[in-house]
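FW: tagging you since you asked about this chain on Friday. Here's the raw sequence from the shared folder, copied in full. Didn't touch anything.
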Amino acid sequence: MSRDSFVRGAMILALGSLISRGLGVVYRFTLPWFMGGGQQAQVGIGLFMYAYPLYTALLGVSATGVPSAIAKLLAEKLARDQWRDAQHLFRVSRAMLTMLGLVFGLLLYLGAPYFAQYLFRDPRATLTIRAIAPAIFFVSIMSAYRGYFQGLQAMAPHAVSQVIEQIVRVATMLLFASLLLPRGIEWSAAGATFGAVTGAVIGLLYLMSVFRRHSVNPMRRPANAPGGDVNTAAVLREILDLALPISLVAIIQPIMGMIDSTLVPSRLHAAGLGDRATALYGVLTGFALPFIIAPTVFSYAVGMSLIPSIAEAMARGNRAAAYAKNQVGVRFTLMIVLPATAGLIALAREIPTLFYDAPETGPSLALLAAGALFLGLQQTFSSVLHGMGYPRLPMRSLLAGAGIKLVLTWYLTAIPALNIAGAALATSAAYLVASWLNSRNLERLMGRRIDWAAAGAKSLLAAVVMGVAVRLSYLGLAGTIGLKPATLVAVGVGVAVYPLVLVAVGGVTARDLESVPGIGSRLGGLLQRARLIR
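HL: got it, structure written out here
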């Protein structure tokens, strides 16, 4: 896979993820309104967010490790023209994910009262947990098809399915949250979580239809296509050897969320804030975290494209190509995540005030903003290590980060002056540790240091200039046009200043823009003719 093809695949996934996350922003910012607003909405968001760490932890086993294993192993087998092995690999993986999805969905549904009572200390969470449980079954099967397309390095079906799933999810979520509100806030929150089920069903149906008619479907190759002897037990071992460490990585991140959902409320009680514990937890997870997750859309897309691309390079014995693709991945990750971090720090209080009238979110958001940078790098480095065949290393790095988070959350959240800001600081520290350990492992395995200056110096300069411009424009306008209009203008200034400075310092090339689907090549040609880029 060429460098341009890899970047184009990442861009397609990023575009799909951006649209999907953009729709997610719609529900993040509007769901409190559909829950009635005010203190009631904060409780509803808290109940809503209680369900997700459990859901994502179980989904990490059934819908993350195996699909990533499918992508890597399928890419390797197709690089060697082992079509029959690729066929069997996919069929075994799909059956495994179907069974795992069924088992974990039932486990979550039947165990909901116990999780609500003993983990979250709020029996009202039973409804939200049960409402989301069936989604595990459908998302698990859907993930088999996504891993298949990722292994073929055909990213469009994956991206489109994300958008379709999210459209249905958000529509169902807002509709049911509103319709069920008269029955109580716990029913409204449960209606919102049920959107994950309807979205997964429609997304799965779309991928199954594309699979049947896909033009390069390995499943259509004749039975005598190249490949070794088909051995289901050997295929299962091959999948599990790679999938288990990846699944553990996927589980650790929701477990870090569960640290918040279980530890933060109890430590807030210890700080004397027990009557506000659920509401403050809703502020942290429902008001601050969405802004941090959004910038990592691109790093996620880069990672998904890197796994099969790196695996292909390693299967061909081309370690130099793997290093070059890692450099491109780091560069593109920093190009997106650095300005987002700078902008969130510059307007940490103003952005949540604009959307929620919740300036108290500001300290947590400022501390989490740095975490967005480290989370983006952690995702990219983990994907490279997975593609190289070392999935246990990201697991160890993230476990170390989770240990740091556990200790810091315990001590810092119980400090009354910090409360949820202490939990935010613990999260950023966890991702800093994980990303640093992953970078050290990569440098050791590749025998070469990551060229940070080449990857991010120009993006860092542009992000700093943008952050200063954003803050100064807000301060200059807030006293004349009002706080919220000034915030909107300042955001617009940031959107304009960053790419202009990046182009001015040579941080973007025509080749970069050609990888962007749609207008990329035309925009690159226009800027080249104007002698603004090379």
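FW: The chain has two domains: 3-450, 452-534.
HL: agreed, and Residues 480 and 486 are 9 Å apart (CA to CA).
FW: great, closing this out.
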